[in-house]
Specification:
The protein has 4 helices and no strands. The protein is mainly α. The chain has one domain. The longest helix is centred in the N-terminal third of the chain and has 14 residues. The chain is globular. The mean pLDDT is 92. It comes from Trifolium medium. This is Retrotransposon gag domain-containing protein.
Length: 66
């Protein structure tokens, strides 16, 4: 089965999000779960960015990906 790739902040973030969307659309995964899975793909600078967000900043997959 397709694997979610990792993202460290050095490549195109839109490509990473497109990859996640393609895999999770295929598996019919909802937005709330997408947000949780997304955070598991982040490494280094990208994880530091994610951890710096205000606690309730991310309220939906759309908020996170815009």
């Amino acid at each position: 089965p397709p694997q979610l790739g990792t993202y460290d902040g050095k490549s195109d973030p839109d490509e990473h999000i497109d990859n996640i969307n393609a895999i999770l659309d295929f598996r019919m995964v909802s937005g709330a779960i997408r947000c949780r899975l997304f955070s598991t793909t982040l490494r280094k600078g990208a994880m530091a960015w994610y951890q710096s967000l205000a606690p309730r900043f991310v309220s939906s997959w759309r908020d996170l990906t815009e």
